[in-house]
Design a protein that fits this description.
The chain has 16 helices and 14 strands. By secondary structure, it is of the alpha/beta class. It has three domains: 213 residues, Rossmann fold (3-Layer(aba) Sandwich), CATH 3.40.50.1100; 92 residues, Rossmann fold, CATH 3.40.50; 80 residues, Alpha-Beta Plaits (2-Layer Sandwich). The longest helix has 17 residues.
Length: 410
């Protein structure tokens, strides 16, 4: 190697092709489908890779299995340990159980219950330790030393990266016309493997990463900047504070750009995929679509592949996301209305709402508000409407009937 030549990457196309042969038949070759509706919305040709249809509902199976298959008999006998916010945990636990390998998984305290329970259901010993992924990693490293276990890292491992890269092989095989891939970044294993494969097969392809604005760790690592990292994100699967040099080097070399998306954008993408594609994705799985819609001008006229990398979202969180999206669209609203506290007032209000086409979901009375006359009462009425225009017309009808009201922002 001359001084002008860059160092070789730790993973190459041959390693990814070897991974594809190793895991073939043991993980799903998920569909890559064109979305007519999302294409029309985004102004480009949108193709979706449904990795949320894997058995564990996440792409992490690919790298986990490739790593486990590479272990020697002695390493398998020792057992493995992994730290994960959920999807890597399930991938390791599921395939370790299939291969007869004892698995211990350390998960941070904020991990959704559904991910913890499903990991236990695969027979793994699950330990919930640490506030953040980095804390869980510290605990797992100590336990590895104490018990002599083999560490299966979620992203800082060549076998893991190669396994994740098989997604790009499948996408470009199914849709050779793709000229752009938008890929979520947590620790960077997924985008690293996919970038190596895609750039080797199609050097001009544009690889774009996406992170939540609350956890821009790779964004800053690659750009040489610094900034806060942390917070309550709906995309906990990519909430990684500390990057690995292995993935950072690949991303710096092969990824054209990293985009940041805010929480409402991710929530909107989750709801849109459910509404349009009838598919459930978690926050990390919706990040690519969030970036595409938020930065739509950058992708106009292109053929874009999005990886719906996982679908393990807690049902309560999904319900909250749906309700918040309905509120943003003006389809669910809370009207704060003042009534005279006498028989028939509420019935008259209900008649006005019904005649205007609103559907009452909930009514809460408040007779103790000090800001209104003693003979009045305040009611908070949650109402379903068709859209924001219908909501505004309903408000006019309530006001025209003599009621004092305001719409509470949600």
């Amino acid at each position: 190697m001359t001084e002008a030549e860059p160092a070789r990457l730790s993973v190459d196309l041959n390693a990814i092709r070897d991974a594809a042969l190793a895991i073939g038949g043991h993980v799903a070759r998920t569909p890559c489908r064109h979305s007519r509706t999302l294409s029309a919305i985004a102004g480009c040709d949108v193709w979706l890779k449904f990795e949320n249809l894997q058995f564990t509902a996440a792409f992490k199976e690919r790298g986990a299995l490739n790593k486990l298959l590479s272990l020697t008999a002695a390493e398998r006998a020792r057992g493995v340990i992994a730290m994960s916010a959920g999807n890597h945990a399930q991938g390791v636990a599921y395939h370790a159980e299939r291969l007869g390998i004892r698995a211990t998984i350390v998960m941070p305290k904020g991990t959704p219950f559904t991910k913890v329970q499903r990991t236990r259901d695969f027979g793994a010993r699950v330990l919930v330790e640490g506030e953040m992924l980095s804390d869980a990693n510290t605990f797992a490293e100590k336990l590895r030393e104490d018990e002599g276990l083999v560490f299966v890292h979620p992203y800082d491992d060549d076998k893991i990266i190669a396994g994740q890269g098989t997604i790009a092989l499948e996408m470009l095989d199914d849709v050779p016309s793709l000229d752009t891939l938008i890929i979520p970044i947590g620790g960077g294993g997924l985008i690293s493997g996919m970038a190596v494969a895609a750039k080797a097969l199609k050097p001009d392809i544009d690889i774009v990463g996406v992170q939540t604005a609350l956890f821009p760790s790779m964004y800053h690592a690659v750009r040489g900047g610094a900034g806060p990292s942390g917070g309550a994100t709906v995309a906990e699967g990519i909430a990684v504070q500390h990057v690995a040099s292995r993935t950072r080097d690949i991303i710096a070399r092969l990824v054209g750009d990293i985009l940041l998306v805010d929480e409402p954008d991710i929530e909107h993408a989750i709801a849109l995929l459910l509404d349009v594609e009838k598919t459930v994705v978690e926050g990390a799985g919706a990040a690519g679509l969030a970036a595409l819609l938020t930065h739509a001008g950058r992708f106009q006229g292109r053929s874009v592949g999005l990886v719906l990398c996982a679908g393990n979202i807690d049902s309560r969180l999904l319900a909250s996301v749906i309700m918040r999206e309905l509120a943003r669209d003006g389809r669910i609203s809370i009207f704060h209305i003042e009534l005279t506290d006498r028989p028939g007032s509420l019935a008259r209000l209900a008649t006005v709402i019904g005649e205007a086409g609103g559907n009452i979901i909930e009514v809460l009375h408040n007779r103790l508000s000090s800001g209104i006359p003693a003979k009045n009462v305040v009611v908070d009425v949650t109402i379903e409407t068709r859209d924001s225009h219908h909501r505004d017309r309903l408000g006019h009808a309530i006001g025209a009937a003599g009621f004092i009201y305001k719409i509470i922002e949600t």
